[in-house]
Amino acid sequence: MPKQTNIPSSDSALHKNDAEAQSPHRSAQGSVGGELHSHDGAADMASFLQETTGKTYERVEKSFGNGYVRLKSEEAERRQAKHDIRSAEDVLLEMMRNSRDANARNIFIATSKSGDHRHLCMIDDGCGIPKDMWEHIFESRVTTKLNTVHMDPWGIHGRGMALYAIRENVEKAFVQDSRIDGGSAFSVIIDTRKLPEKRDQSTFPRFFKSETGVIEARGPRNILRCVAEFAYREENVCNVYLGSDAQIAATLYAYGRSITSPTQRAFDHGQEIDLCKRIAYATDPESFVAQAQSIGLSLSARTARRIMNGEVCGVEDSATLVTNQLRKISASGNNPNDPAQDRNLYLSQKGSQKKGKGSSEKTNGKNANYDLKKILLKELTTSSKALTSNLRLSPDDKEHFQKALQSAYASFADKYYLSTDVTPEITIKNSEMVIRIPLRRDDML
Fold it and tell me: Taking the model in full, what pTM does it have?
């Protein structure tokens, strides 16, 4: 049975803005009034610009007089796009709704920020997009939902305006890669000076059950909360994973290796591999980086090696993090209204991501091959030990390490009249590195 949360419907925001638009103060100072005054006087200039650039700068289709106009459809769509997307969090929400409606069972979101620019990369295992449609899907009114337009808790969906609105409001938005029935990868770059985001992007929201039995969330409406609310409400439809590029790459690596055999990974290569499995086919750090870049994830060869060695773990799905938080609050009897709980709850969520523990016990009836909650729980708790036990030092690295050990041992040996002419032995066994240095008395004694 679907869970109830207090996620606000976008209808209230729409009604509020309709009311504001109809107020005398706004209509007196709005762009429509100024546009009427300048429309006739700028006709020649608009014609000149249209002839020289091939673009039309006219925004009014017809003037009725007394301040009433009919906007051209392109201008109306542009203004609606500005209304639909007001923050970086709105961009992410629309992207998740799109992936869900593309029948994605798993959605992976990597986010990072450099200066004022927020980068979002979303990879899913949905139905994919034909290559000749990669650009067209960002045009207004382009949709696959001809007969399936529907309402969800965030408003109407299926108008063919979501991706158009995203591109109208961000610096860049494009399809990184896609394969029919093999998923899609989108990249979006947002200039937060033009499209703001919540200042606090580190606080995980607090979820709790109210006295009426409704699950409620508190905290800043940041990216963490946006994803957590969506994931919890839609957990019977899809799993959502949020992290850094490295964390999402590690999650995809664990997932891909869990659902593909060594034989498949040995013989199936190239870009025809489903996007969510692609990283698992990497055979070395360099190929890992190349596969990650093909779906929009940026990381170094050193980070790739750490992931392959099990030193960087993946993340749990966001719905499980919410479920774990609810269980901890219920078990401990903590008061959800106590602000002092915020920091502890956030740290507990971060800890569970690193350790890979606390997976939800519930099942949702999805195909077992795609049940990442079970796959990753097993993978994250075993991969680190298994991979480090298979660690092999290259001859050059081993020799360099031995020389460093000899140098460090020399001062100790001199103090105790021991020979410095020894070669340390280095072995790796059972996830441990063992160093043996034979103790020999100095020949001068």
Answer: 0.64
